[in-house]
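=== RUN LOG ===
request id: a7f3
mode: sequence -> structure
chains: 1
length: 142
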Amino acid sequence: MIRVATLDDINIIRRICDASFDLNRWSNASFMQEFDKDHSIVYIYEHEDNAVGYMVIWKLSLTVELVTFAIEKEYQNKGLGKKFLTAIIKKYKDYTWFLEVSVSNQIALDLYKSFDFKECGIIKNYYGNNLNAVRMTREAIV
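=== RESULT ===
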C-alpha cells in the first residue's frame, strides 16, 4: 500500500534513510521542511503492514522531481522499489520527471533506465567530496 506520509512518520523515514544511505543523509529538519512545502509530497510504501520505503517528490507545474527515494535494506532486491516507483510514475504519467543519482549507484541507474529515464548530464561534485551525480529525465506520456 502507498500512502501520503504525515509528520508522525518521521521516525520511520529517518530509520529507512539512515539504513539506506552512507553519505548525504537527510536530517529530521530537512524531512520536516518537506511537509511545509506546497509542492512537496512525501509517500510511504507499506508491505505486509510494515512501512518499508519512502519517497519525496516535488510536483511543479508539469514536472515531477524525484528528490529522494529508499527502500529499507532488508526489503531491497525483492521488487518492492520497482512496485513503489511504478505506482507513483503511473499517478504522474502526464508529467516530465527529473532526478539525480550518484554515478556510482549502478543498481539505481539500472532501475531508472528500466522506467525509460534517460541520462541528460553529469553534475560535478553534487554530493561533495568529488562525488558526481547523473541527471536523468523521463518524458511525460501523453
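=== NOTES ===
The mean pLDDT is 91.
The CA atoms of residues 64 and 97 lie 5 Å apart.
=== END ===
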